[in-house]
């Protein structure tokens, strides 16, 4: 059993499959071609013998009729001719009359007997026939003997020639030996060619394996290059793209860990400084203690917001997260979001306007989508100027729902537009910390929209304002793979709750 498994494992290797394919591709056509050559040689030899026997027997037939040999088979001249032909052919000659009686058998075996054979009977009807006996290696030719040269003349008998074909088999045997030698030589040549081809074919795979091992072990890898053939170059291109993405993900992960550590450490450091300051003061007034405690409470709130945003982001990035999809009145949803944000806008002196073009119903996860739009509206308010405005518009066509959040606030520099959805990235760090931003809001927003199979685009000009365009399908389309993962996650949660 173990030997069978080892053999099966070896057959799964590309190198062995390539070698076998090349060997079979070379040896099978060679074998078929050699067999067809031998077959053609045998058929051609038989056809030549048939033609020669027919021509020689035509001469004998004329003499047999002239001397009425069918009636008197004692003619010495005809007997001599028949015996000579018999010796040449290494077989026997039979002369049969129209009653299927054997008038003459050069071997003297069947003389006087009646020969009932299909070919002899058909030849009495005027057909010239031949039959090759593979088992005994004889060629039998039957030729009708007519009273005249006319093809329509009555048939008076049949001349049967049995020809030994041993010489043909000897020739075939002689040709088979070099054929087998050629087969062996070709096999060795193909084996060497197959081994060389297999080695060069799998070389890119080995190179890729080494690159993956280096990457897995933490070593830097520059990717694959300078491979032997176009397909390998294409494979290397895909591998290099994948490797670049993996390195980018790793760099992003390290940056994320660093940013999380920094963001969580900053409030703790501030609280530590405040606590140390209070402890170092003797007889400090109550108002100072209250002020320090308020600052510490503010830092705790900031820490809590960072942790909550991190949890929201992790939950949205988690594979198999379930979506609570329902048909929602988008007009009422957007109005409720603006109602919650309006107090913040009033404190900032920012005008908040909703523009709805038509009633819109959309299949969404209300909680996740509300979080995404709330983040966009809050950012438009917080990063605005006193007396500014924020316009939110809602529209739809036959397939998509469109939500646009536009403001005339600070704007975003062009070199930062590609990075604003990165976790913890801030355009203006000092202003973000003043208003309590964590740098996670837009990352959460983008993930929530992607979970709805939608997309978000941004256009901005520094000092002029920013516009976010959100588009999601009116009908939520369930990805079969995501649906299986989500159902499995629900099953696991139910099992755990049952325990």
From TrEMBL:
Entry keyword annotation includes Metal-binding: no
EC number(s) reported in the record: 2.7.13.3
Domain Histidine kinase: 259-476
Gene3D superfamilies for the chain: 1.10.287.130, 6.10.340.10, Histidine kinase-like ATPase, C-terminal domain
Keyword presence, Oxidoreductase: no
PROSITE patterns: HIS_KIN
Any one Gene Ontology molecular-function term assigned to this protein's record: phosphorelay sensor kinase activity
Annotated compartments: Membrane
GO cellular component, one term: plasma membrane
Keywords linked to the UniProt accession: Kinase, Membrane, Phosphoprotein, Transferase, Transmembrane, Transmembrane helix, Two-component regulatory system
Reactions it catalyzes: ATP + protein L-histidine = ADP + protein N-phospho-L-histidine
Chief localisation class: membrane
Stored CDD domains: HATPase (cd00075), HisKA (cd00082)
Chain ranges passing through the membrane: 20-40, 175-198
Alphabetical GO biological process terms: cellular response to phosphate starvation
Sections of the chain in a coiled coil: none
InterPro entries, sorted: BphY/WalK/GraS-like (IPR050351), HATPase_C_sf (IPR036890), HATPase_dom (IPR003594), His_kinase_dom (IPR005467), HisK_dim/P_dom (IPR003661), HisK_dim/P_sf (IPR036097), Sig_transdc_His_kin-like_C (IPR004358)
Protein name: histidine kinase
Organism: Shuttleworthella satelles DSM 14600
């Amino acid at each position: 059993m173990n030997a069978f498994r080892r053999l099966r494992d070896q057959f799964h290797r590309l190198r062995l499959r390539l070698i076998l394919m090349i060997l079979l591709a070379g040896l099978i056509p060679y074998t078929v071609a050699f067999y067809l050559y031998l077959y053609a040689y045998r058929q051609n030899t038989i056809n030549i013998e048939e033609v020669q026997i027919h021509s020689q027997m035509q001469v004998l037939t004329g003499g047999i009729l002239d001397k009425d040999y069918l009636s008197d088979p004692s003619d010495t001249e005809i007997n001599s001719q028949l015996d000579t032909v018999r010796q040449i052919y290494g077989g026997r000659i039979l002369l049969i009359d129209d009653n299927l009686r054997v008038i003459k058998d050069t071997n003297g075996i069947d003389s006087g007997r009646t020969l009932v054979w299909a070919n002899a009977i058909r030849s009495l009807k005027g057909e010239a026939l031949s039959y090759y006996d593979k088992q005994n290696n004889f060629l039998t030719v039957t030729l009708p003997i007519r009273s005249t040269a006319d093809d329509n003349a009555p048939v008076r008998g049949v001349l049967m020639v049995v020809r030994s074909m041993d010489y043909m088999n000897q020739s075939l045997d002689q040709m088979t030996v070099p054929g087998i030698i050629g087969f062996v030589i070709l096999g060795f040549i193909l084996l060497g060619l197959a081994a060389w081809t297999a080695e060069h074919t799998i070389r890119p795979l080995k190179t890729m394996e080494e690159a993956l091992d280096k990457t897995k072990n933490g070593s830097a890898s520059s990717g694959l290059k300078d491979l032997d053939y176009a397909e390998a170059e294409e494979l290397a291109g895909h591998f290099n793209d994948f490797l670049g993405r993996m390195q980018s993900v790793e760099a992003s992960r390290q940056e994320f860990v660093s940013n999380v550590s920094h963001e969580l450490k900053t409030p703790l450091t501030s609280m530590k400084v405040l606590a140390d300051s209070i402890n170092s003061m003797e007889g400090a007034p109550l108002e100072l203690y209250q002020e320090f405690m308020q600052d510490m409470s503010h830092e705790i709130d900031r820490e809590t917001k960072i942790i909550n945003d991190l949890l929201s982001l992790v939950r949205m990035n988690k594979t198999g997260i379930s979506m609570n999809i329902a048909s929602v009145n988008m007009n009422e949803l957007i109005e409720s979001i603006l109602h919650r944000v309006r107090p913040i806008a009033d404190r900032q002196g920012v005008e908040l306007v909703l523009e709805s073009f038509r009633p819109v119903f959309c299949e969404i996860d209300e909680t996740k989508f509300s979080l995404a739009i709330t983040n966009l509206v809050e950012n438009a308010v917080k990063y605005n100027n006193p007396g500014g405005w924020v316009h939110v518009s809602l529209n739809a066509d036959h397939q998509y729902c469109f939500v646009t959040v536009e403001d005339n606030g600070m704007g975003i520099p062009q070199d930062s537009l590609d990075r604003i959805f990165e976790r913890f990235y801030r355009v203006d760090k000092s202003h973000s910390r003043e208003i309590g931003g964590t740098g996670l809001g837009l990352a959460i927003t983008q993930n929530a929209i992607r979970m709805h199979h939608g997309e978000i685009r941004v256009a901005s000009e520094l000092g002029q304002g920013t516009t976010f365009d959100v588009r999601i399908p009116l009908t939520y389309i369930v990805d079969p793979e995501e649906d299986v993962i989500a159902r499995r996650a629900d099953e696991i949660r139910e099992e755990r709750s049952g325990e």
